[in-house]
Amino acid sequence: MTNFTTTSETLSGRLPLVEPKDMTPEQLERYEGNAINKTNFFRLLCHAKTLMPHLTAFNVAMATSIAVPPMEREIVTLAVLHLERGEYEWAQHMVVAMFMGIPQVKVDAIANERFGDPVFTDRERALLAFTRQVIKTVRVDDGAFNAVAAFYDPRQIIETIMVISNYMMLARLSEVDQLPVDGVAGAEFWKHLKQ
């Protein structure tokens, strides 16, 4: 069930949210054309008028055409958001995980930073250990790299790093702004892409 606000009275964080009258024609078309764009985060991103269209295209490509399997991409995303304390995006991706059928025991293990938990497959544990090192130390040690390389080809490894980096950036945008969670539209975004 979708639960998000659609009014211009939505509370903002440190920065004012962009009002529809101040959006570019492309932003306004997206804002008016799809209720999932009437979120605090969309309106915050509208400040980056020239970068936002490219970020949107990147996220659509990440969601629809990378070689990393969708459920594994989502497990990486949840791990990033937990480690980065990305409250706004975590709220979105809790619903996405449910929509995708990721078992709650896996979500709970990520939320409690039990990345080596037996609820995960060997492949997922390697991916989570790799994700943690990319975030925490930047340089991944040979053990974590070799473990992930046993399951993923070079394209998938690069794409995984890009997924990690994307959600690190999104967490920083929302958390530096102290953006209030205005509801969850994350699953609606994914459903919309499947149409």
Q: Your description of this structure?
A:
The protein is mainly alpha-helical and 195 residues long. The two termini are 17 Å apart. It contains ten helices and two strands; from the N terminus they run βαααααααααβα. It has helices spanning 25-33, 40-45, 52-64, 70-83, 87-100, 104-111, 122-136, 142-149, 154-177, 186-194; strands spanning 3-4, 183-184. A two-stranded antiparallel sheet has the order 1-2. It is 62% helix and 2% strand. The chain has two domains: 14-63; 68-194, AhpD-like. Mean pLDDT is 90; it is low at 1-9.
Briefly summarize what is shown.
The chain is an all-alpha fold.
Which architecture of the largest domain per CATH?
Up-down Bundle
Intertermini distance: 17 Å
Q: Radius of gyration, rounded?
A: 17 Å
Note the beta-strand portion. Answer: under 5%
Q: What's the CATH topology name of the largest domain?
A: AhpD-like
Mean pLDDT figure: 90
User: What is the CATH H-level superfamily of the largest domain?
Assistant: AhpD-like
List unreliable stretches of 5+ residues: 1-9
Give the beta-strand count.
Answer: 2
Order of helices and strands: EHHHHHHHHHEH
Q: Main sheet?
A: 2 strands, antiparallel
The level 1 CATH classification of the largest domain is Mainly Alpha
The share of residues in helices is 55-70%
Number of domains: 2
The quaternary structure here is single chain
The total of helices stands at 10
Q: Name the structural class.
A: mainly alpha
Describe the global form: elongated
Q: Give, in spatial order, the strands making up the sheet with the most strands.
A: 1-2
